Amino acid sequence: MSILQEVIACPVCRKPKAEVPQRCDACIDYFKNELAKIPSLMDLTPEAVLGTVEENKDNTKPLRTELFRFPIIPFLYEHIFPPIWALGLRNLGGIDTEFGLVTDFFGQNPGIVADVSCGTGIMARRLALSGKCKHIIALDYSESMLAQLQQEMKLDGISLSQITIIRADVEALPLVSNSIDAIYAGAAMHCWKDAVEGIRNIYRVLLPGGKLFATTFLKPFPSIVFRFFSLQELQDIMLAAGFKKDNVQLEARGLYATIWCIK
Ligand SMILES: C[S@@+](CC[C@H](N)C(=O)[O-])C[C@H]1O[C@@H](n2cnc3c(N)ncnc32)[C@H](O)[C@@H]1O
Question: Which residues pair with 214 in a beta bridge?
């Protein structure tokens, strides 16, 4: 069985294909049919699996999540924001600097890496081009961001066998518990509905000793649309999700926070 079939899980019962239990009858066919689409994009959001887009009122997302589904946003992320970030908003040197920090932390053989809330895949694509990862799984809630990721992969000459693309909700990650070596969640936590639940999911799917590299923006950015944090709040979120205090390191560069955690 391929690594992917062991690592990708139904977001509802959290089991891989071989273990999906009978009680998951309602979604078993959807999940298995979706897995058969590999290497093409899969939609493994809980609402897709359960077919409850209209009925599931509890799953409505806040504007800070939904706005990334507008088609203009991926264009901004590819063509407008990167030079602005490079001036220092997201580390001096922007994503290239962040890529250096990520690869320093993940090491020479990062294993299976998930880019959670990957957007257009600015990090997933760099990781793929580095050729060091055993496999990369790129997950995001926004269909528009993932469509742009697919286009950019073509332009970069990255094949679908290098990056598996999944539409997913960080609060119901369709990955098996204790299965992923390293996770990148760049500039993402402030966009999630519930940051503790998102990080709790990340903690769950990381292997013991697995690494999380995350970044987000800090107060006093006002939490009007996005939900910004203080460094103390970020530390509290990491601990509430399960990380031990000694295995959490945080740093603020201006209003940009970088977080290194080991499970
Ligand atoms: C600011 S963008 C960051 C994209 C990319 N990681 C980067 O470093 O530029 C935040 C991303 O989080 C995604 N997102 C928001 N809520 C999410 C959720 N509940 N589950 C998964 N992704 C989510 C958005 O669709 C968007 O692509």
Answer: 185, 259
